[in-house]
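Re: weekly structure request thread

Next one in the queue (353 aa):
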Amino acid sequence: MDFFSKKARGIAPYTAGEQLRDKTYIKLNTNENPYPPSPRVKEVLERFPAEDLRLYPRPDADLLRQAIAEREGMSPENVFCGNGSDEVLALSFPAFFDPDGAGACFADITYSFYEVFAAFFGIPTRIVPLLADFTFDLDALRRTDCQGYYIANPNAPTGIGIGRETLEQFAVSVPDRIVILDEAYMDFFGESCVPLIGRCPNVLVVKTFSKSYALAGIRCGYAIGDRALIAALLRMKDCFNSYPVDGVAQAVCTAAVQDTAYYSAVTQNVVSERKRVQNALRDMGFTVPESASNFLFAGRAKAGGKEIYTRLKEAGVLVRFWDKPVLRDFVRITVGTAEQNDALLRQLKEILS
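Done, posted below.
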């Protein structure tokens, strides 16, 4: 007997990047940081009292929110923490959009979880195509009838970033609509819109510990915004899970966010390698938009995206491929260590030759 609901039968779930275990791979397909977390993280894990695991964590993650607030130059009341930025984004749909409303607006080529979340919560969507150069058509977004926007900045999977001044002008022009800025890769760009919060009450910035903090395995993300927006997220959280961030995650992420010197150095390493690999790919004939993230969107070379993905996989290098219009001409490549990137470039030269 089929016990599935109509929603369970009909919804198309998000597809995560491959996590293969059949052999050792150079894993450049899920935008993980190639460098380890701060040494302070290891220290916290080694001394975390096991007996504390019998207790529920702080539901408000107050110490972590305080650390994030200090790092971002905000008040703890402007910070919301969740089980990864995906959970924060998920809760934002029922918090700010109505099933019978004008809908959530986002680009046709962007983080594909937005469409999944909208379907899960029954929120109408308004899809706006990117321009031919893969940049956002902000004028078209502005003209679209909707309750608000999801803008990944830098965007995924293209890696293209939008400057803070441009986004401020956009947010000011739509004061009656919420502008949710997904800044998962922002530390590799340096144009965060957190400074807009005080003067743009319709802006909500969402960030993660998975990328620049090298903590994808701990599952923690956060949002920063006007207190009224944070209150809406809290209402949704407490209707779903009062304890989304476990005690270990709170302690680890608090230590990580305080080690600014370490993560600044790691981020600069990634940015430096990004430029080197980007130049090498272009020299091979790839089209590579200017990236502001920790990955590169490369395609339109002598071989198609699927062939490049398949042959790299056979050679033990994983990259991301989508068999969809426009995207199928490209692969998305995470920036790895210098050694990982060299191995990637060697394999690509063989494939294109």
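The mean pLDDT is 96. Residues 260-283 form the longest helix (24 residues).
Next request, please.
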